[in-house]
C-alpha cells in the first residue's frame, strides 16, 4: 500500500483547496479511504471517510465545508475544502483500511495546509 498526498499549501482565510491522495499497491474499492488532519500540538482527527461500499461520512470537524470524493479508475482520493479558516491549518493525511481487516490502517506522509493572511 502506498499513499501520496498532494495539493496542500498556503491559502487565505475563506479560500479553497483540493487535496489529492494517489493510491497504489492495492484494489482501491476494497478499502475504506479517509482523510485525517493533525494541527500542531493536537491529536490527529478524522475529517471524512468513503467506505468501501461507497457511502460517505463526515466528521464534525469540517462538516459542511469539505467534500470527499474518489476516482477509482485512477485510484485517487480527493478532499475539496472550502471556506477555510486559520484553525484548519494542519497536516492532512489520507489513510486506507482493507475492509476485511479495518483495524489495520495505512498512512500517507501528509500534505501541509496553512490558512493565513
Walk me through what this model shows.
The model has no long low-confidence stretch (mean pLDDT about 95). The chain starts with a strand and ends with a strand. By secondary structure, the chain is an all-beta fold. The chain has no helices and 11 strands. The chain is globular. Helix content is about 0%, strand content about 50%. Strands 2, 4, 5, 6, 9, 10 and 11 form a 7-stranded mixed beta sheet that branches. A 4-stranded antiparallel beta sheet has the order 1-3-8-7, with no helix packed on it. A hairpin with a 5-residue loop joins strand 5 and strand 6.
Please provide the ordered H/E string of secondary-structure elements.
Answer: EEEEEEEEEEE
How far apart the termini lie comes to 37 Å
User: Shape from CA axes?
Assistant: globular
Q: How many DSSP-defined strands?
A: 11
What amount of the residues lies in strands?
over 45%
Q: Oligomeric form of this entry?
A: single chain
Helix content: under 10%
What are the segments in which pLDDT stays under 50 over at least 5 consecutive residues?
A: none
Report on the biggest sheet. Answer: 7 strands, mixed
Query: What's the average pLDDT?
Result: 95
Structural class, please? mainly beta
Number of helices: 0
Tell me the Rg in angstroms: 13 Å
Amino acid at each position: 500500500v502506498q499513499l501520496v498526498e498532494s495539493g496542500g499549501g498556503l491559502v487565505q482565510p475563506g479560500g479553497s483547496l483540493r487535496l489529492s491522495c494517489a493510491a497504489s499497491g492495492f484494489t482501491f474499492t476494497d478499502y475504506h479511504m479517509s482523510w485525517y488532519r493533525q494541527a500542531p500540538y493536537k491529536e490527529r482527527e478524522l475529517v471524512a471517510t468513503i467506505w468501501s461500499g461507497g457511502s460517505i461520512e463526515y466528521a464534525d470537524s469540517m462538516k459542511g465545508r469539505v467534500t470527499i470524493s474518489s476516482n477509482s479508475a485512477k485510484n485517487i482520493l480527493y478532499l475539496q475544502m472550502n471556506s477555510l479558516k486559520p484553525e484548519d491549518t494542519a497536516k492532512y493525511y489520507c489513510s486506507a483500511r482493507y475492509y476485511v481487516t479495518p483495524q489495520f490502517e495505512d498512512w500517507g506522509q501528509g500534505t501541509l495546509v496553512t490558512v493565513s493572511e
